[in-house]
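Sample 3 of the quickstart, ligand 2'-deoxyguanosine-5'-monophosphate:
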Amino acid sequence: MENCIFCKIINKEVPSTIVYEDEKVIAFNDVNPAAPIHILVVPKKHVEKVLDLKDEEMEIVAHIYKVINKIAKDQGFAEKGFRVITNCGKDSGQEVMHLHFHILAGKTLGPKIVG
Ligand code: DGP
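Result:
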C-alpha cells in the first residue's frame, strides 16, 4: 500500500531492526519503545485494522500469535512474561493504519495498559 510506513518497512524501503521474518509476517523493534523490549509484529498483507479482517484472513492472527510465542522464547522473556496490545481505530489511538501487534516486555509492566 502506497504511503504506508509498515509496507515500506516490509519492502525494505525504510530501514528497521528486524527480529523475525517469514513469508507472512515481519517483526521489528518499535522506533519509540514504551518498554525495554518493544517489538511490533506485522502481517505482510496490508490490512488496516482488526475490524477489517475478513474471515479468510483470520488464520494470519493465529500465525501471528505463534510468531509472538517464538520471539518470546527465542529472546528469553517468555517465562518472565510480556504484554500484547493491538490498537483498532481512532479511540484506541492507532497511529499506523496497518494491522500490528505490540509485544512489550523486559520489566514489570504497571497496571496501565502501556508502561
Ligand atoms: P499504534 O499506536 O498502535 O498505531 O502504534 C504504532 C507504533 O509504530 C508506534 O509505537 C511507533 C511505531 N512506528 C511508527 N513509525 C515507525 C517506523 O518508521 N519504524 C518503526 N520501527 N516503528 C514505527
